[in-house]
């Protein structure tokens, strides 16, 4: 029964998505909404939530950039099912071949849909550390999300990049190029951003969180530094990894920087006082709670890892 | 599809998710009886008799860094303390043999937790009896992997150590923290693409001395977190320095010595 429900849901999801985007009318929540946010630049807003069977892991913002000849897809979503809906919605917009699939980092909500896009002529692209990150974490992600997402995880496989970026790279889509930049360990060890200079649109991946509390799975100090350096990227708008689909740049960075700064300051103070990691991580950045969603899901974890990082600083 | 229909389906999904979550928790076979046989030769273990207390978080916020503290009611009477993460691939996280005169009140360390698991702390008292306390730890969301954050940094700094002293809450005791930079690779992370494993590389032995007297020695495995970390109290013997000797499973040897601050 469960399987049938899921299939019914997905079939409806796909059909409604196709029909509605063809009519380009306001779509209800059941459709996979892919919005043209700038000429030839499309984005999808994920739900600000944890990945579940009910939401099919569709929690991250995804995107696509259409050039004269080909398409680049930016992140593929949290399940094969979400990715198939994404692909169907994209095919309503363009029939040009997908030449590149860029993964902004290794987290499941950004890479679990890769298999939907695999095929001849498609090159997967990622940070030079992405293969290593997927190697270290892929098996754990598959088994732990199987427990929470059940058969919504069917068909998900770990597909790594065949083109990796150590610093910067430019991808040619025909009459349109997009610039990739690899960053030092910050949100994660493999963060890559995509800039469409034609329209001044930056896809930040999870180097930018809006409304969804930032997640630190790499380095707190690295994240702070990268957030500063990111501000220098010349763009008009940003598609963040999570939260509202489009935001003004670089103003969109302000809340995240305030959170990371507060967390760092609180942890340093706790370490100086001689507090242990458990006590410190329970209180750090508490003053930021009201500003963010999913705060209690991620802040204690950020604080725990941040504590272990910052206690190596010299006094 | 209408909003109502979707909400109903969503509710159904949610209910089933909960049911599956509960099943995952309760249906896993309990490895503890087997661990008692393997790690403690099947000896009788007294439960929660107050000899040893275990502080563990109810939820492992970061699966790679889960703080655990073992406390001893009568420190002079405890010879060995063992921390076991039942559901981990290598359950025995660490065995601490305490110095005869060290009178260690507590040892806090950090471990990796792969999934929902019981954690056992087992003390062997000087009469040879075993005493345990158990806590259940929920693994955090699936995104939280028991993996290192920055392998390059871990490798670059391997063997670097740090020592801190704290004001002890126990009269006449000193409280200290030893931190060792080490990736502590488990050897269990299989690359899903190449099907190859990262070789195991972890700290397997640490000795902490004040002068010529042992405070504790630890034998550990891959369940210890990257950058092994120990915070503990001990009874000072007047020695001027605290000394650490650590080894890893690939033959790495790391030593450090620090002056002990004058008692304040």
Explain the overall architecture.
The complex is a heterodimer of chains A (315) and B (264). With 315 residues, chain A is of the alpha/beta class. Helix content of chain A is 36%, strand content 20%. Chain A has 8 helices and 13 strands. Chain A has helices at 2-23, 80-93, 108-111, 130-149, 220-230, 254-273, 277-283, 295-310, and strands spanning 35-38, 41-44, 62-66, 71-74, 98-102, 123-127, 163-165, 168-172, 177-182, 192-196, 201-209, 237-242, 247-248. Chain A has a 7-stranded mixed β-sheet with strand order 1-2-3-4-5-6-7, with no helix packed on it. In chain A, strand 6, helix 4 and strand 7 (163-165) form a beta-alpha-beta unit. Chain A is globular, with a radius of gyration of 19 Å. Chain A starts with a helix and ends in a 5-residue tail after the last helix. Chain B has 264 residues and is α+β, with helices and mostly antiparallel strands. Chain B has 3 helices and 16 strands. In chain B, strands 1, 3, 5, 6, 8, 9, 12, 13, 15 and 16 form a 10-stranded mixed β-sheet that branches. The radius of gyration of chain B is 21 Å and the shape is globular. The relative contact order of chain B is 0.16. Mean pLDDT of chain B is 87; it is low at 1-26. The interface between A and B is large, with 62 and 59 residues.
As a whole number of angstroms, the C-alpha radius of gyration of chain A is 19 Å
Helical fraction of chain B: 10-25%
Structural class of chain A: alpha/beta
Portion of residues in beta strands of chain B equals: 35-45%
Main beta-sheet strand count, sense and barrel state of chain B: 10 strands, mixed
Taking pLDDT < 50 over at least 5 consecutive residues as the criterion, the unreliable ranges of chain A are: 1-29
Helix content of chain A: 25-40%
- Structural class category of chain B: alpha+beta
- Average pLDDT of chain B, rounded to a whole number, is 87
Radius of gyration of chain B: 21 Å
Q: What is the rounded distance between the termini of chain B?
A: 73 Å
